[in-house]
Amino acid sequence: MMQTLQFLDILIWGLWVLLFPGIFFITFLALLWEWIDRKVYARLQNRIGPLHTGWQGILQPLMDFLKLLGKEDLTPKRADKRSFSAVPVIMLVLSITLCMFIPIVDMDPSLPGIQGILSFEGDLILLLFLSSMLVAVIMLAGYFSSNPFGQVGSARTGMLLISFEIPLIAAIVTPAILTGSLRISTIMEGLKTLNIPYALLLILPLVIFLISIQAELERIPFDVSHAETEIVHGWQVEFSGKKLALIHMAEDIMLVFAAGITTSLFLGGPYLLEFIPLDVFSVTFATLMQTSWIGWVYYTLVFMFKSIIVVMILSNMRTAFARWRIDQIVHYGWKFMVPLALVNLLLVQLAIVYIFPILGVIV
Amino acid sequence: MSTGNRKTVTPPRVTIPIGPQHPALKEPGMFKLTIEGERIVDAEVNIGYNHRGIEKLAESKTHLQVLYLAERICGICSATHNGNYAQAVEMAAEVEIPERAKFIRTLTWELERIHSHILWLGVAFHEVGFDTAFMYSWRDREIVMDMLEDLSGNRVNYSMNTIGGVRRNVSEELRSSLLTRLDKLEERMIYYRDVAIQEKTFWNRVDGVGVLETSVARATGAVGPTARGSNVPVDVRFNDPTQAYVHLRDSGEFEMILSERCDVAGRAIVRVVETIESIKMCRWLLQNLPDGPIRERVRPRVQPNEVLARYEAPRGEVVHYLVTNGTDKPERWKVRAPTHANWVSMRHTLIGNYLADAPIILAAIDPCFSCTDRVTIVDTDDNLIESVPLDIMRVRANKWYRQNGGKF
Amino acid sequence: MSRLGAMEKELLKSIKKKPATVIYPFTKEGLNIPVGLRGRWTYKNPDRCTGCKICERVCPSSAIEMVECGPDDIQTKTGWRPICHFDRCILCAQCVESCPRSVLELSAEFEMAFLSRDDMIIR
Fold first, then answer.
1. 8 A C-beta contact, residue A186 and residue A175
2. B167 interfaces chain C, CB cutoff of 8 Å
3. Which of B16, B130, B142, B200 has the most A C-beta neighbours within 10 Å, making it the best mutation to test the interface with A?
4. What does pTM read for this prediction?
């Protein structure tokens, strides 16, 4: 009897990881986000965007992925073959692992609040570590391909990330300071009960975070490492067929991660109606959602809604700017973004320790 | 600490080829850039991948047929070569074409300048990754493309000119519709002048990049917007006007656009402002269109003569040198396309800039490789290159086919 | 002078605007085909042809060939009539202009893709 229960547990857990908040759902979101990104990008440019595959071209990212899978896969003679073919897989695995940390629905009913598939104390640190590792893989990808364009591209990726990892971390730490935890689900739970003056402190780090995550995703104006008119897609230049398909998928999943982490840490996660200060919503509705299966649908939809807003903001940034040169990016990164992030941390500390107690605002 | 043996470490010099195939180049051309780190320390321009033998082919065709061949020298400035060849033949035959024909020919030229400059603007935006402005500018270019299509019946190769005039007339309703569309175009161009090129990320990429000083521009004989962006007043439309440009100059309403910036930004500003000036010129031409016939009959046989026809193409001064010999075919025809004059200063503009700026600097002169490649120069002293006479080549080819069993 | 995000207003405006894209192969809406378009080479008044061969002589790309009139064709004075190898035609309309009896014309048809060269000979 015990054994069957355990077996069932493992089966259900496996289904979660594979299907709903796990790999399948994340992939689905990745393709959907790419479609939204392309559509918004096109509409802002007064074009139509994908149109013919499915309703309004909604299946176009999937078709692109499948078609790329079927293309001829070439490995350059001078490339380090084993590492070269490992790069796309590692990228995909890392990005999916990153997405497992994002709290979408309640995975552990014994704890209060909503947890991701992976959730433990200090997972924010691991998250940052993994996302930096992804960058290291990208840099290696360029060097493994032993193509001058690829190497220039990976060198640029390195420079870009050196400049923007610091503001990114400084921004991500702010909600952790405000709630006093390094666990994403606890931070999210803490944000729910935050006072309005405290919530206002989140605006500046949100802006810093959005700019830095745009750099992390290597999109315009920070797409120096791709820069197709200068270095022919940089570190991706030698990848083709299945490998390129996996890399594109990994990039799309990174977009899901970026939007998801912004939603969780700055926009209050999958809660929406709970923020209305009425007992009907903040108590009755919240309890209902937490205890019944409707919550799963509700949380997923709210999460998607908030993520879509973030994706749209990121697409708008991609539309409004030209590509900066690498030295300009490093210049603005160190002269503007890093000081701003540090000032922001200082401000938060000052506010929490000195200003708010004087004003009489408490958590 | 000893300060005696301090060593300065310089990054190794690497030669990076841009081209013959490169996404930044729309046509084949090769640029060998020697870089230290990200800085360009030396550059070498190799062109000649597009030699098509047009001048030789022209010698076997009649003047009327060469008109359509000349048009195909360049896809973007097709009215330029077409009209300038017609002008050259008219000069050789010593005929004066009717006033209305002159006005319509000039109108086609100016509309072509508008479309070419907007095209360049889009390409420049694209080279620095500003795809949004690229999409917008090419969308607005459709207005002038439609105007040209209505005027001439084709979007690209207009075939508007014939020897002794133009082939199509401008009707009254076409005139009013062109005028309304010019207003819309002007509004858009003012937007680009005031807003789009003032976007900071774009401006940072062109400001102070690819500097070509006035003295160097003069010394290397730069022409067109490249020279005018370096404050060199060369513009055939004002210096040596032909056709209806004489009237345009005499009206005193138009002036040469110059910029003192000397960098890529200067060239961009010159092109955008010049487009607005061109729109005004088109409007003036349409409003003052004289009545009368549109063509004059010219005998197909042109008397022996030697002429040099100049015209300010969108990219700069284009020169057609024509020798006629009394038959209906040209004896010799030489085309100097504007890009050819601008290549000379290219090395100077590239040196000292970042590698990432190479595409935009190359694009800033609006290069047109096919127009340029009139001749291929081979250095026979170079051991790498072997010069083979035709008969030896034929023997070798026959041998190859015998060995490899080809069918011929 | 230069500022960040200068075009943002225009971008947001264009969401409401109709897209500039023309969905061409599916609909010909918005193509603005002008009246005087130089399209596919056709005969306007084939019965007026005299077979003078001017069109063949002026053609810059030697696309026009004179063939002897067959029994089913319209008989011209000289017994020759023009056919067009359309793959070589550059659509300059010089033949239309030079023809003394306006036999030829470039029609408004602009979709000119064929699967074989034989289909492109206009008889």
1. no
2. yes
3. B130
4. 0.87
Q: How far is C4 from chain A (nearest CA, A)?
A: 8
Instruction: Please give the residue range of the domain that contains residue C76.
Output: 35-122
Which of C1, C2, C13 is the best substitution to test chain B (most B C-beta atoms within 10 A)?
C2
* Structural domain contains residue C22: no
A47 within some domain: no
**Structural domains in chain C (count):** 1
* pLDDT at A3 (0 to 100): 67
Chain C residues whose CB is inside 8 A of the B146 CB are 32, 34
Residue C23 falls within a domain, yes or no? no
Contact (CB, 8 A) for A326 and B38 = yes
Spans of all domains in chain B: 63-338
CB–CB contact A320 C20 (8 Å): no
B142 touches chain A (CB under 8 A): no
Mean predicted confidence (pLDDT) in A219-243 = 82
Task: Say if A12 falls within a structural domain.
Answer: no
Domain presence at residue A116: yes
B33: region left, alpha or beta (phi > 0 left; psi from -120 to 50 alpha): beta
Is C63 domain-assigned? yes
Residue A205 located in a structural domain: yes
Asked if A107 and A295 count as a contact pair (C-beta separation under 8 A), the reply is: no
Name residue B259's beta-bridge partners: none
Q: What is the pLDDT of residue B1?
A: 46
* Amino acid letter, A96: I
Q: Cis link prior to A277 (omega < 30° from 0)?
A: no
Mapped onto helix, strand or coil, the DSSP state of residue C22 is coil
Instruction: Give the count of domains, chain A.
Output: 1
Q: Closest Cα of chain A to C3: distance in Å?
A: 11
Structural domain includes residue C21: no
Q: Which residues of chain C neighbour A46 with C-beta distances below 8 Å?
A: 14, 17, 19-20
Which CATH number characterizes residue C115's domain?
3.30.70.3270
Sorted by sequence, the CB contacts under 8 Å of residue A111 that are 6+ apart come out as: A185
Q: Considering only CB atoms, which chain B residues are within 8 Å of A148?
A: 14, 16
| Contact B131/A at CB under 8 A | yes
- State the best of B73, B142, B199 to mutate against chain C, taking most chain C CBs within 10 Å: B199
The shortest C-alpha distance from C80 to chain B (Å) reads 23
pLDDT tens string A287-320 = 777 777 787 888 888 888 999 999 999 999 888 8
CATH fold, domain B63-338, is: Cytochrome-c3 Hydrogenase; chain B (1.10.645)
**Rg, chain C, Cα only:** 22
The answer to whether B328 contacts chain C (CB < 8 Å) is no
Residue A188 is predicted with a pLDDT of: 83
ipTM of the assembly?
A: 0.86
pLDDT beneath 70, residues of chain B = 1-4, 9-11, 374-386, 405-408
Average pLDDT, chain B: 85
Q: Residue A318: which of A167, A211, A208 has the closest Cα?
A: A211
Q: Lowest mean pLDDT: which of A50-54, A173-177, B10-14? A: B10-14
- Minimal Cβ distance to B199: which of C2, C60, C97: C2
CA nearest B272: which of B109, B141, B76?
A: B141
Domain that holds residue A248: 75-359
